[in-house]
Amino acid sequence: MAAQLHSKNTGSRKTLKQDMGSEVEQKLPVLDFSKEALKPGTNSWLLACKDVQRALEEFGCFVVLYDKISDEFRNAFVGSLEELFDLPTETKMTNKYEKPLNGYVGQIPKLPLHESLGIDCATNFEETKKFTKLIERAYAFAKVAEELDQMVARMIFESYGVEKYYDSYVGSISYLLRILQNRSPKENEHNLGFVAHTDKSFTTVLYQNNQVNALEVETRNHEWIKVEFPPSSFIVMAGDALMAWSNDRILSPNHRVIMSGNETRYSLAQFAFSDGEIHVPEELGDEERPLRYKSFDHPGLLRFFRSQDRYISNSAIKAYCDRMGSETQPKLPVIDLSDENLKPGTDAWLLACKEIKDALEEYGCFEAIYHKIPLELHNSIFSAMEDLFGLPLETKKQKTSDRPYHSYFGQYSFLPLYESLGVDNPTTVEGAQGFTSIIETAHSFSKLVAELSQMVTRMVFDMYGVQRLFDSHMESTTYLLRCFKYRTQEENETNVGLHPHTDKTFISILNQNQVNGLQIGTKDGQWIDVNPSPSSFLILAGDAFMAWSNDRVPSCDHQVTMKENKTRYSLGLFAFKSGIIQVPEELIDEKHPLLYKPFDHFSFLDFDRTPEARKLKCSIKAYCGFFNSLWPFLTENKVGNWGLVGTYGMFSPSSASNLSERTIIGELFSLIVNQELGLTDGPKPFCSY
């Protein structure tokens, strides 16, 4: 028997109680578009417009009967797909495109039931010749799905009284067609065919080639309806872009695939994307429903959604475009940790714990006010750093360490402004003695900052209810004090002090002189300029913290951009764990399934230094994430190759309709790419007010 991921109630149809106390199964609305009399302006058309509007507002999707696909066509197409997917893996992997997410990918451990292939420009007959057995059938299906999609789009525009915008919308559409295969689960395999997600399209047309029903749709009440496909039927589904266009009147439904039985499921999905901007019609904004989204470029939204590093939202379009707080420049939370009464168990402690948790989950960092570092000590160590970096280069290069990132770094053409060196175990006198010129100041400074690190770590453990693990965690924690210098740029030099990156630490604590330049990346892709005072410190979550938290806390993106004509010095105390890091069982639940295997922290640092790891967008996910078997395909050199990335086969059938070709990325693979593989950090407020 296949391992079931969900309880008996999960995935069942929603039931409604009637007056007599009986229960009825709730199903998606079924609309019949096969009638010859269904023409614009007719009574049947107007009724259908209202039915479409009601279905999309309540469920975000509906079943439509549309008898343009014959049984003969369906059976022949399924046969072609079976033969295609039965080819040797080596053969299927030769299916490559220059565009991302458009070729073959399979053999993914967390989704073993999935495999896919793609054909670009499926309505271009010359392109489909590359797949000789699918030429006519793929082209024919793409045209039928296009016809149905545009009929539904017209009904949507007319039902809201904004039909004057329909022609310009249709003129901007391009389509992406993807082929999906879900095999049946083997013994002890889970039955998850595809994770719950919403589409990023305007609309999506789904077609199932056989009667293996596995698609489930979540209702507004967060219950799951198992979708049944009658003969000659399609599912029309709203995407996030349509939800934004409708000013939140229409639902973009969460949906997933749960496999059962012993048959393989084949399905097709055609996604509609605008090649340009999407505007909320002014008619859809009023006093009761004020405008919630500003105009946004649809392909740009998709590129933003794909380009970030670790964040995914259950409603990505809202994370991009939601009105709240989008016009003001974001600022890092500032938390005062200098109160003498800040003791474990006190109200002040509990309040600070919550503030820290909220800040880390939102930004991956915060600014801490901490007065326990005397100003004299602060000034002394930064003065000593000037002398240290003034030493001859040969002397500085003698600072070496067997541990990654602990040695001297500098004199690189790609980072001409930057140099740094590290003091291993600076909280011990022995460690600090490696730098005779700053022994006492480095040791004193590190001891006090380590106390801050331990306080923050304890608050995190308290807030997540894993206090029992704190002592053992701290016993295995070691520190690295790293000194940084960023000189001013010369004429024609870049002002990049340090490229965007995340730390590989558990926690990093940064302190600087009065020359600013540090910038923190937010989930929505903005960069916050950080201007801390001498008595404040930046607390940053590293990759190891992100993995330990099971992705509750993002690893903080940061960079240094030199804007002042002064040399910038900064100090970082980096916390590492000597031993194994694993996700506490308390941080694993239905909403947060286990994403990382236990890993050795310093072995991860060794891996991160390899040439292969340096090409990755997120090395921690490659090293110990449950999707790591796909990472060899996800280097910077290959991430743009449609043949090596993408769990679903794709067509881009725009050319047959004289529509401009765009690089479009559908949602069906985005949740894997974004949440599991770390290719995205999350949405920018791209169309927010």
In terms of topology, how is this protein built?
Layout lengths: L14 E3 L5 E3 L4 E3 L10 H16 L2 E5 L5 H15 L3 H4 L12 E4 L2 E6 L8 H4 L6 H25 L6 H6 L1 E10 L9 E6 L5 E6 L6 E4 L5 E3 L6 E6 L1 H6 L9 E4 L6 E10 L2 E2 L17 E2 H10 L8 H6 L12 E3 L10 H17 L1 E5 L5 H15 L3 H4 L12 E4 L2 E10 L4 H4 L6 H25 L6 H6 L1 E10 L9 E6 L5 E6 L5 E4 L5 E3 L6 E6 L1 H6 L9 E4 L6 E10 L2 E2 L17 E2 H8 L2 H4 L4 H6 L24 E3 L18 H7 L13
Helix pairs in contact: 1-5, 10-14, 11-14
Describe this structure as you would to a colleague.
With 689 residues, the protein is α+β, with helices and mostly antiparallel strands. The chain has 2 domains: 28-292 and 299-309 and 630-676, Jelly Rolls, CATH 2.60.120.330; 334-580, Sandwich (Jelly Rolls), CATH 2.60.120.330. It is built from 20 helices and 31 strands. Strand 24 (518-521) and strand 25 form a beta hairpin. Helix 1 (43-58) packs across helix 5 (135-159), helix 10 (347-363) packs across helix 14 (439-463) and helix 11 packs across helix 14 (439-463). The protein is elongated. The relative contact order is 0.15. The model is unreliable at 1-22, 97-102, 120-130, 307-312, 323-327 and 628-689 (pLDDT under 50).
Give a quick summary of the entry.
Probable 2-oxoglutarate-dependent dioxygenase that may be involved in glucosinolates biosynthesis. May play a role in the production of aliphatic glucosinolates. Residues 1-13 have a biased composition (Polar residues). With 689 residues, the protein is an alpha+beta fold.
